[in-house]
Design a protein that fits this description.
The protein is mainly alpha-helical and about 475 residues long. The chain has a domain at about 15-95. The chain is about 70% helix and about 0% strand. It has helices at about 25-40, 45, 50-70, 95-110, 115-125, 130-150, 150-170, 175-190, 200-210, 210-235, 245-255, 270-285, 295-310, 320-325, 325-345, 350-360, 365-380, 385-395, 405-420, 430-440, 445-470; strands at about 75-80, 80-85. It has a two-stranded antiparallel sheet with strand order 1-2. Helix 5 (about 115-125) runs antiparallel to helix 6, helix 17 packs parallel to helix 19 (about 405-420) and helix 18 (about 385-395) runs antiparallel to helix 19 (about 405-420). The longest helix has 26 residues, at about 210-235. The chain is globular, with a radius of gyration of 24 Å. The N and C termini lie far apart (about 50 Å).
């Protein structure tokens, strides 16, 4: 009889002791890490996908790790009396994160076919009566909500497309730039709302052991305040005002009334099923840590289970959903985890951790605040995913360990998400916003975006520092 599942990961007999790693080897691998980050920052210039970039660096790091002898020869998984030998790069991958991203992506892709998201957006458009200020508020709130339950890019595409059509129909194309910039910035605010709203949240929350419900309860107050502050600032900076005459109000209402929210709904039954499933998914994720049996399987199991259940509706054509999966993102994650694992063996993370420790030694207030701002500045010029993965690994290995309630974790969460509002390359959603802007033939340079976004980004970071230091 097979005994209870017990997985014991250990190095092979000749690698029980940590191999000596010279400072020169650490410097070489540190250079590789910096080179990878630089390549990710200029991926468009290199005309290469993220997965290819990190995949190449993963291969180089693994080979160099073997040559220098810093890697354990193999890992051993024991299930009862059975032994399974694993290559070192298999346990290096955080499969829980991969499962959450794959499951959530499949679920959202299938659910979106029901037309539920476009239905909500068009309903709000008609409810605004075509009033520009109401549209800004409604679209802003919807952007935050969509970014919390979808991925930021999907949210920006849906809202950006609807904004372009709505404002052109209303003859308010002069306000399109302000709307799209505001929505692009709000996607990163909404990305803070739940544990699955953004990839940095998943990585850091999973490492820190923060539950879905706890994450939401701690992040929600900030998201509400930051959303209100962003809309208030956008109203004044972009000159968005309410319609002041009855004639203008009637004309605007007549124009938006031509929108048909039911046009994109293929089946009422599927529409209702998708809405119910979405509510159940959020409920299941919120209570994963207390559900019998499920709590031991984790959020990855929950996300994958709901994805499979929804795919039943398209059981004869699931291939198109598998093909639509962001395999580049999944490949990027797998190879990134391998690179970080090698960096850990090369003591690169140890060196970064010492520098980070010096930052935190500045005190709870100054140290945590500096960590948040530093994370934001770093994520504004490069991908916030490797930044989050590296910092999560370092903080997770800190001695003494930081509890899940520590504000240090939240400094990284807020910094990694909000840094994307400083530049158009800081996040995928702001890049999408720039794409929609240019597609609408509105001239906006890199510097022009930074100039428009800086007041918002400074406001967000100021609020975040105050919230993390005073409230959390």
């Amino acid at each position: 009889m097979i005994q209870n599942l017990q997985t014991i990961l250990l190095a092979s007999a000749d690698t029980h002791a940590e191999p000596h790693v010279s400072s020169s080897i650490t410097m070489v691998f540190g250079g590789l890490l910096l080179a990878m980050v630089a390549c990710l920052a200029f991926e468009e210039k290199l005309h290469a996908k993220k997965s290819l970039i990190t995949g190449i660096f993963a291969i180089v790091c693994l080979l160099l790790g073997e040559i220098t002898g810093i890697l354990p020869k193999e890992s051993i998984a024991k299930i009862g009396e059975h032994t399974i030998r694993l290559p070192v790069y298999i346990p290096a991958i955080d499969w829980e994160v991969i499962a959450i991203i794959m499951g959530a992506s499949l679920f959202v892709d299938v659910t979106s076919k029901s037309g539920i998201f476009s239905w909500i957006a068009i309903k709000l458009t008609k409810a605004s009566g075509g009033d520009p200020l109401k549209l800004l508020i409604y679209y802003g709130i919807l952007t935050v909500v969509f970014s919390a339950v979808l991925n930021n890019v999907t949210a920006m595409i849906i809202i950006g497309s609807l904004t372009t059509v709505s404002l052109k129909k209303l003859g308010r194309s002069d306000k399109l730039l302000g709307f799209l910039i505001t929505e692009g910035l709000l996607t990163n605010i909404g990305g803070l709302l739940t544990l699955i709203s953004s990839v940095p949240n998943i990585i850091i929350g999973n490492r820190a052991g923060i539950s879905f419900a706890t994450f939401f309860l701690k992040a929600a107050p900030f998201v509400v305040v930051a959303t209100i502050a962003t809309l208030w600032l956008a109203r004044s900076r972009f000159g968005v005002k309410r319609l002041d005459t009855e004639g203008a109000k009637k004309e605007a209402a007549d124009r938006v009334s031509s929108f048909d929210e039911n046009e994109g709904i293929p089946s009422k039954r599927f529409f209702i099923t998708s809405a119910v499933a979405f509510v159940l998914l959020i409920a299941a994720l919120s209570t994963t840590s207390i559900l019998p049996y499920v709590k031991d399987l984790g959020m990855g199991f929950v996300a994958m289970s709901f994805a499979v259940i929804m795919l039943i509706a398209f059981k004869n054509e699931v291939n198109k959903f598998y093909a639509a999966l962001d395999w580049d993102l999944l490949g990027f994650f797998a190879s990134l985890f391998v690179v970080i694992n090698v960096m850990e063996h090369a003591l690169v993370l140890d060196a970064v951790g010492k520098a980070l420790g010096a930052l935190l030694d500045m005190g709870d207030t100054l140290g945590t605040g500096s960590l948040l701002v530093s994370s934001a500045l770093a994520s504004s010029v490069t991908d916030n995913i490797p930044l989050s993965a590296v910092l999560a690994q370092i903080l997770g290995n800190h001695d003494p360990a930081f509890p899940a309630s520590s504000s240090v974790w939240w400094a990284v969460v807020f910094g990694a998400n909000l840094g994307g509002n400083l530049t158009p390359i800081g996040s995928a959603s702001t890049l999408v916003a720039m794409t929609v802007i240019h597609r609408s033939e509105i001239p906006l340079s890199f510097g022009g975006f930074v100039k428009a976004a800086i007041p918002f980004a400074l406001l967000h970071l100021t609020l975040a520092v105050a919230y993390v230091l005073i409230v959390l």
